Amino acid sequence: MLRSADCGALRKENAGDQVTLAGWVGRRRDHGGIIFIDLRERSGTVQVVFNPETAADATRVAEEVRGEWVVQVKGTVRRRPEGSENPAIDTGDVEVMATELTVLNRSLTPPFYIEEDADADESLRLRYRYLDLRRPPMLRNLTLRHNVVKYIRDFLSERGFLEIETPILIKSTPEGARDFLVPSRMQPGNFYALPQSP
């Protein structure tokens, strides 16, 4: 099983639960042998703690882990010690004491930080769009779009409407990508183009 819980769903009520989490490594901090990793996926971020006294093998692996690596963590949810809570995140009252760490995929150093207020040039973010879409503002936009479209589809489907998707032939537009041209049967020598956007 890849995961048994979402990172962003863990709360005080989950203290004591054994969980399996998977996601991207956000920030990694080494505090004299004890390592903290912010594990992030689309539901949110949770702090994972690696203590060499309780999980030596997992801590050795955590020493090598870097930002944006994809990992799987097994451990126990616990309340954070008093005074170390983080009110800035939804999971700020809890942390996961890791017992196992598996690296699922390594990553090169990303060209910009994947965080709320990434200070990166827009052209750089567009060049690495697959990374930009991991940023919280972009994720919120995608989630909102998904929820609106799903609501509309459900609303119409409940009323007996049928959704169909047909190819649409339009006038060619100069957008840079190569057009898929369809010859016109009625006007020899003329062509239609399938739209470039879905």
Walk me through what this model shows:
By secondary structure, this protein is an alpha+beta fold. It has three domains: 7-105, OB fold (Dihydrolipoamide Acetyltransferase, E2P), CATH 2.40.50; 110-164; 167-198, no CATH class. 21% of the residues lie in helices and 30% in strands. The protein contains four helices and seven strands. It has helices at 56-64, 122-127, 129-132, 136-158; strands at 18-31, 34-41, 44-50, 70-79, 94-105, 180-183, 191-194. A five-stranded mixed beta barrel has the order 1-2-3-5-4. A two-stranded antiparallel ribbon has the order 6-7. The two termini are 34 Å apart.
In short:
21% of the residues lie in helices and 30% in strands. The protein contains four helices and seven strands, in the order βββαββαααββ. The chain has helices at residues 56-64, 122-127, 129-132, 136-158; strands spanning 18-31, 34-41, 44-50, 70-79, 94-105, 180-183, 191-194.
In round numbers, the mean pLDDT is 90
Poorly predicted ranges: none
Which CATH architecture of the largest domain is right?
Answer: Beta Barrel
Overall structural class, as computed from helix and strand content, comes to: alpha+beta
Q: Main beta sheet: strand number and arrangement? A: 5 strands, mixed, barrel
Q: H/E element string?
A: EEEHEEHHHEE
Helix content: 10-25%
Give the amount of beta strand, in percent.
25-35%
Q: Identify the CATH homologous superfamily of the largest domain.
A: Nucleic acid-binding proteins
- End-to-end Cα distance, whole Å, is 34 Å
